[in-house]
Sequence to fold (295 residues):
Amino acid sequence: MLLLTGATGRIGSALLRRLTTARVPVRCLVRDPKRLGAERVRVQIALGDLADPPSFRNALRGVTTVVHLGASIRDQPAGSIEELNGIATWRLVQAAERAGVEHFVFTSALGASAHNRTRFLRAKALAEQAVVESSLRHTIVAPSIVYAPGDHLTTVLGRLAWLPVVPLSGRGHAQFQPIWADDVADCLMAALDRPVDPDAPNLRVELAGPDVHTYEGIVRAVLAAAGRPRRLLPVPLGLTSRGLRVAEALMGTTAPVTWDEAELLEVSMTSRHGTADAERLGVTPKRLAAVLGTA
Ligand SMILES: NC(=O)c1ccc[n+]([C@@H]2O[C@H](COP(=O)([O-])OP(=O)(O)OC[C@H]3O[C@@H](n4cnc5c(N)ncnc54)[C@H](OP(=O)(O)O)[C@@H]3O)[C@@H](O)[C@H]2O)c1
Fold:
């Protein structure tokens, strides 16, 4: 039995389709099973929450492999970014050790470091450390920015494209190698199928798309794909931060964008390996323009 967290997300939904097609027995730890769509009848469901560690114990019963994709780039009422990403992963690792799990697969992120300016990438660094220091055989996947047509980022930008001028948080100069969620899912499937090498049981791969884009370049690509190329208006970071913090204070969890999310787009996420790690797993990541249909 494989336990999947984050099954309703960008990467998780792409991975779940592949797992159920391959007839892998899957249990999904979810807050709301309805969000699994048609897949919910093909899997076991464990109701749970990253902020609720007792829910991990039931979810892990009889599980040999954990794929932990669940994460949050904004604070939630039940837990902060640090709790949902750092502490929850540490607790899930401990529960997995107790439950006799054999393989723990974790998605970190390029740029995860205890010294990163963003809360999310600091929490990911601590989570990654918990996985590495555990007794579990592990695979760590660290992607650059991951996208899928219709995801949160492309939807927000698509909405902004109705304006005559689209605001750009900061100068948009941070660099990314965007990788399609389906390509990440293919890499995860390959990592799950990899025979265990007794001399090197653990694996860490950096997943990047074939092209380096600035954030500004990504925004322009998404607007072009929506058929609404627009002039961009850089908004100084101080102003973005104050505006988004006020919006969050007024709107709470319904705020369309938070400062923590916007700040992530200020931090470059590139790998000097380029697409090499993905290719070693047998996956050739597609270009952003090809996936968005503008190539
Ligand atoms: N997207 C990127 O650019 C990117 C880049 C680098 C690394 N990663 C990492 O890759 C993994 C998957 O990313 P993604 O883009 O697919 O994520 P995503 O689309 O944001 O989905 C997040 C998933 O986590 C679940 N989740 C959030 N809060 C939860 C909670 N309190 N309890 C239980 N589940 C919760 C969500 O479930 P609900 O349906 O209940 O909300 C959803 O399934 C994450 O670990 C992420 O940090 C992503």
User: Anything to note?
Assistant: The first strand starts at residue 2 and ends at 5. The radius of gyration is 19 Å. The domain at 2-146+178-208+272-285 is CATH 3.40.50.720 (Rossmann fold). The chain has a mean pLDDT of 95.
